[in-house]
Amino acid sequence: MDNTSLLTSQSPAALAEEYIVKSIWNHHFPAGSDLPAERELAEHIGVTRTTLREVLQRLARDGWLQIQHGKATRVNNIWETGGPNIIKTIIKLDRSYLPVIISNVVSLRTRMVEYYVREAVKINATASAELFSNLESLENTALAYATFDYNLFRQFTFIANKPVYGLILNSFKEMYIQVASLFFREEIARQGTLNFYQTLKMLCEQGNDEAVQQCIAKNRQQSGIYWTKILQNLPEDFGE
């Protein structure tokens, strides 16, 4: 795969980051190995050591590297140390990971939701039902549905006293909305989900937490069929 356009900026820092990330991804700097000395690496890339240090610090925060004071900088296994913020970079590096990433994001969202939404209804059914107050004014667009879905299920985490789940959704916000927009681009998906929201709202109003969980599980199964078709025909510009 040609990775020459991973980063579009031509700043020294961007060029250094691009070189190091590609080198790690393509196993020129394999996981568990040490990067060359700063002076050597800076000269090879054509940047100052100050610029290189800033880039190394940023890549370390993202999980690509481990900076060891007094020792060489170690290359991490990014799958073990990285966070959701590098997903877009991985997609740009190798689009073959797209189906796996999308299916993982969808699975994470749906499995979490089945658990904590029921808890939210148990704790405060009235507050749970009020989360649907803007449902009638929901615009019939993919982005509007994706944003509503994200905000709805993020707000449920706080009613359920599951703030860590809220933090997880915060970290996935951009990817969540992008993936959800892909799902909601078809009218049939939006209509089916609107019916799901309406049913879920009614069950929240009734305080029927068991039926809420069953409703969400049924929606997961129905959506899964549609997702299978989507993953077989992903748009070329997804993730860009």
UniProtKB/TrEMBL annotation:
Keywords: Activator, Cytoplasm, DNA-binding, Fatty acid metabolism, Lipid metabolism, Repressor, Transcription, Transcription regulation. GO terms for molecular function: DNA binding; DNA-binding transcription factor activity; fatty-acyl-CoA binding. It comes from the Bacteria. GO terms for biological process: fatty acid metabolic process; regulation of fatty acid metabolic process. Pfam families: FadR_C, GntR. GO terms for cellular component: cytoplasm. InterPro entries: FA-response_TF_FadR (IPR014178), FadR_C (IPR028374), TF_FadR/GntR_C (IPR008920), Tscrpt_reg_HTH_GntR (IPR000524), WH-like_DNA-bd_sf (IPR036388), WH_DNA-bd_sf (IPR036390). Homodimer. This is Fatty acid metabolism regulator protein. It comes from Haemophilus paraphrohaemolyticus.
